Amino acid sequence: MNLVDNAAKPLKIQASSEILNKLEKNLGITNILIIYFPVTIGPILRFYLRNTNFTEMIFEDPDILGEITIIGKYAKAIKLRNGATIYIKDFKISNTLIMLMAETKGVSEKIEIFLDMLINHITEVRELDPVKLTDILEKLVNNIEFN
Prior knowledge:
Radius of gyration: 14 Å
Helix content: 40-55%
Oligomer: single chain
Structural class: alpha+beta
């Protein structure tokens, strides 16, 4: 997939209900979004895990990603007015800035550790598509111990 193809529609990651439930129950993660950030275009939502109020906000007004990424320069998490907490982490693949956003029910060190592990696995793959993201999530969630 071309990292800077701004005409591409966001793709839903097809994780099983078991994975979704484990993420939510054990970590409080309700959604994961992958945003590509080509400098000339600005942030583009590429992948998401669930349809949530936050995802709908982005679909209705994609410019909100620009505002959130500005906040992401200075904060690792933000609390939205609707109650969701959004973790923001960035990394690069092929010199393209990518932001991982996780919609959560709160703040926790476990979430940060999980997101760092997710980024490490994503950067090893280097080319993203929904199938690879699903595989990465399943391996991580099934191999992590939730204490």
